[in-house]
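We store sequence, tokenised fold; for instance:
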Amino acid sequence: MAQVTGFPIKKIAIFRALKLGDFLLFTPALKAIRRSFPQGVIDYIGLPWNSELVKRYDCYIDNFVEFPGFPGLPENPFNAEKVASFLTLVQKQKYDLVLQMHGNGNVSNLLVSLFGGRVVAGFASDDAYWPNQDFFLSYPGRQHEVLKSLGLLQFLGIDHEDKAMDFPLFETDFQKLGALKEFQSIRSGPYACLHPGAISAAPWPAEHFAAVADNFTEQGLQVALTGTMQEKHLTRAVMQKMTSPAIDFAGKTDIGMLAALIKSSRAVVANDTGVAHLAVAVNAPSVTVFTTTDPSIWAPLDQAQHCIVAGNAVKTPEAAILATKAIMDNERTSPS
């Protein structure tokens, strides 16, 4: 085990330029890093859209640094001039510790080694570049994503107290949500959220989401369909398959409003995508449908409040309908 906590570490850079779900799954690690370095300056290096998200986590993160892309990393287009400016910027920071938390290191280890940090640590696959042998851990590809990050920190001597994700909500999130005319029509009664979009996974068929939605209506719940403006065709497809009405929030909410909408819902049903992890982070009862992604890596750790549907069960809506009833029954019988 390589202990980094014995070094005089004042400035830390975390490199993890990934999507919403990946960020949320990393929040337990963020908490652990801050606890170990309460006086340290922690910079988060991520994708441009992360800048607004990072503001919610100012208790863990001090500064956001926009990552401009790099050859071999598909999340952002590569621009040589921007990368040169970026590297000049991060090298001037003179980081005491650089944490490569982006993945297996096949490309990212070369990148973080250019940051000029005094200590560089992270994951590395067997055929990746290892910047050093002391502070890099062999990448556990099949391990759950939350446990991956915490395992690396434990290897580095950074203890963790809990595995729970979190998403800080502001009063303004609820105020902005409350101002939406779409929300005005559901705030009077209980409702469920369905999110038919997905980024990495193959979306579950619209007719399956519609069957789940109709079942919610039969149970006395209103139905809110969520998504980005680019996913509006998916929410419309679900509405066309439904026999009951629904309210379409696609393109109407920012991330904070969406989290507030989910937080107040009786249940959330989503593909394995960022919104599914958001439901877990705000502790809303949820069902995640795994069509093509691996639940052993991406499923919620707490599967009492957050059920999954995977394997052959995704071929029909029945398992998801039963799962929604189970989580709502569990919510009703759980002590307050």
Remarks:
- The chain has two domains: 11-155, 171-333.
- The chain has a mean pLDDT of 94.
